[in-house]
Amino acid sequence: MSLKVLEYFHKILHFFKKYLPQPFGSVAVILIFALSANTIINTEKVYVHKTNLLIYDQGGYYGYMPAIFIHNDLEFNFYEDYGISKAPMIINLPNGKTINRYAIGPAILSTPFFLVGHFFAKRSTIHEANGMTLPYKKAVLLGCIFYVCWAFFLIRSVLLRYYKDDVVALTLIALGFGSNLLFYTAVHCMMSHAFSFFLFALLLWCTVKWISDNNYKILLLLGLTMGLIASSRLPNLVIGLIPLLWGIQNKKDILPRLQLIWNQKYWIIGALLMFVIGWSPQLIYYKIKVGSWFVDSYPNSRFWFDQPLFWRVMLSFRNGWFIYSPLMILCITGFIVVKKYCPASFWALLSHFIINMYIVSTWWCWWYGGSFGMRALIESTALLSITIAASIHYMIHKKVLKYIFILLFPALVGLSILHTHQYTKSIILFDGMSWCAYKTIFGKTHPVPVEILEKRNQCKEYNHDFYRAALDKKYRWDVCK
Fold first, then answer.
1. What is the three-class DSSP state of 99?
2. Quick one: which H or E segment has residue 260?
3. Which residues on neighbouring strands pair with residue 100, listed in sequence order?
4. pLDDT tens for residues 387-409?
5. Do the domain assignments include residue 304?
6. Which residue range is the domain that position 6 belongs to?
7. How many CB atoms lie within 10 A of CB 356?
8. What is the dihedral of CA 28, 186, 175, 314, to 10 degrees?
């Protein structure tokens, strides 16, 4: 019997060696991530609750698909027919017209999976084919896992150019389990961030293929990717710095880059056309609904460009990046050594990081509302996988740092997974967390005694007038901590 088991195991191993790209340690991490995300979906029954994926931000991103393919209702009135308020998603513009404030990009990427869900819903005897039932929810959840795993394969392809597979595998563990990406893949999948993570990874891969491999035809895909990024979250267009500056290490590299752009000008024009194609669904929606190609879908919001709050974005217990995803500190430390391992990336990544962090930290709602951690930085980690890998490579090859890494890495991954569990179970609050509240629930798992939750609630710093932060800069600084 044991020999048969060994033979069966040998056949599985042979399959992996034959059909999966070598080495496959990093591939195993991707498969484990997919299984973990699917396990969370099923154990937490993410798709069961009637309104889950269909309200607030997620409902805004998701709603385009049933509106276009089933209900022919760009007013989104069908939401109210199913007992769901469309108020958080649909806003009234000054000209009296209404518009879905959320971008169409995630719906574009989710459409193939939504249509698969529609196929099964139409053949179901227990679920209505209305775009709102379980087959659709399950389909888009699996679609989100698909795109994040695809992003991991693209990141893996880039990283293997500069690092060995053990470093790549550890980097993917940091991204998948040491950050809030897992939550936004398995639970709040219809937010824009997991889809933008994929698009960032695709653009990084295209950039490396273009610059390092001189594959000028890839410019068409690069342009389309930029257009889809614009259709998903407009401030993310700062990612254009990556293909523009990749490979620029000093002033001497500027002239050859300009020459390259000139020599490939027709492909560059083609990339610009593809950019317009990728962005066009959003523009067409605005034109149909409002009569204008460009619309400010956040009319009562703003950036405070003279008040960046870097430290709060990174270290506040109100969704701070390093508080809830402490391993992401490797993104920063990697800049110290990345020139040694991937010099072509340094100025491109550093420029993007600084400008993107500035934009993120100047948004009026710098804590980004009801969030788990700093969700606005999730997609950036696809690019910063290169600096994460640089940090890991440097540490595991230094005698003392290696032992520190061996101790801290699994501990911080475990802490991030615990945070994911706590947020999913509403132990960590979606808003108003403070040091006192965090300390109260630190290390606690579900179910938490009522007295601890009451003590946490007494410590929270929920600001019921936080919209005032969009109008009053001093209020934003003094109150919204």
1. strand
2. helix 254-263
3. 90
4. 999 999 999 999 889 999 999 99
5. no
6. 2-137
7. 20
8. -170
- Rounded CA-CA distance 88/439 in Å is 32
Please check whether residue 257 lies inside any domain of the structure.
no
How far CA 110 is from CA of 116, 330, 462, 479, in Å, comes to: 10, 31, 34, 38
How confident is the model over 413-453, as pLDDT tens digits? Answer: 999 999 999 999 999 998 889 999 999 999 999 999 999 99
Query: Is 465 buried (19+), middle (13-18) or exposed (0-12) by CB count in 10 A?
Result: exposed
Count structural domains, the chain.
1
Cα gap 202→193, rounded to integer Å? 14
Flag whether 8 is in a domain.
yes
Residues 199-237 as b/e (b if ≥16 CB within 10 A, e otherwise) read bbbbbbbbbbbbbeeeebebbbbbbbbbbbbbbbbeebe
Q: How far is CA 313 from CA 17, 238, 365, in A?
A: 43, 18, 10
Q: What is the pTM of this model?
A: 0.93
Looking at 63-192, list the stretches that DSSP marks H as alpha helix, in order from N- to C-terminal side.
64-66, 78-81, 105-122, 134-159, 165-177, 181-186
Q: Phi and psi of 206, rounded to 5°?
A: -60, -40
